[in-house]
Amino acid sequence: xxxxxxxxxxxxxxVLLSIxxxxxxxxxxxxxxxxxxxxxREVSIGAIYTTVERFEKKGFITSKKGGATAERGGKAKRYxxxxxxxxxxxxxTRIRLEKMWCKLPVIAGxxx
Amino acid sequence: MTSASLKIAKxxxxxxxxxxxxxxxxxDLEEExxxxxxxxxxxxxxxxxxxVLLTCSQYLFISTRLLMALAVCVTLCVLALFYTALAFLSxxxxxxxxxxxxxxxxxxxxxxxxxxxxxxxAEAIDGxxxxxxxxxxxxxxxxxxxxxxxxxxDKKYPLSVAQFIAVSIAFILLPHICLFFYFQMYNLVLHQxxxxxxxxxxxxxxxxxICSYRLVSKLHEHARQYGGEGRSLACHRKH
Lengths: 112, 239
What we know:
The complex is a heterodimer.
Chain A: H1 2-6, H2 10-22, H3 28-39, H4 45-58, E1 61-68, E2 76-82, H5 84-102
Antiparallel strand pairs in A: 1-2
Helix pairs in contact in A: 2-3
Chain B: H1 2-16, H2 19-39, H3 41-59, H4 64-91, H5 95-98, H6 102-105, H7 115-126, H8 137-156, H9 161-185, H10 190-226
Helix pairs in contact in B: 1-2, 1-3, 2-3, 4-7, 4-10, 8-10, 9-10
């Protein structure tokens, strides 16, 4: 049961890391661009929002409305912040992934 | 043209998106769109519509929630249909119903195209209908075997959502197809057909809800794993 609680899917993992990297500037546009610029992953804005909605329900992030600008047609930004629970979940996932990678034998293209 | 394109896109998003994310998504798209406009209107419009269609499909067409709702609705409709058919058969006692040739040709599902069936359906459900009509040991056995086989296949060769649906439908339709050919090969008399029709309909009634439940679990798993990036459900496999 504990495993299920802390397990993050691959896309969830990436979105949560992006929000952490972006810090105070994490909102839909910047998260999308960060994924594109850093790992060349093109995603829809809808995919970001369905994922962050799920994170909010799980308590992994919180969000707050920012200021509205004319460039955005007068619509407010929604800034995301990773909670302690979200960080803990990321750490759990990282530890598990590292354990799996460490156990790999040195074969072509994998391991150290 | 550019302004009209943006207006139509915003209208579409306004209609489809849930209110809690509507403003943020429209604002984000408008912000990025204005940056793409600096590169060129063509590229900006292509980018905008690509995003709008993916986002709408995210919330509407490919949405796992929609598929879950569809799976539940189809299951309930099919269960209601077969329940009504069984109630109708226990209620109807007329040569007008049992005199039809499809009972002997293995095409019992033709009953659903009979006007009399739909006319008396409500009355039949209200009538006396024993629970024993809903129990058939062979249908139970078939359901257990097929569901176990489905689980084994899914475990050994992880099925995508589309593959899971296809295999489930094949298992559900198998008794209907086999019995159709059985009826064609052996000339059964009317009183011999009852147990076979019961096997056909009840196995569907047992297997469909279980498969739907597994499908909904699979869709939950899919949404959690991939965050629903608008890619085809058929592309993803369970890891």
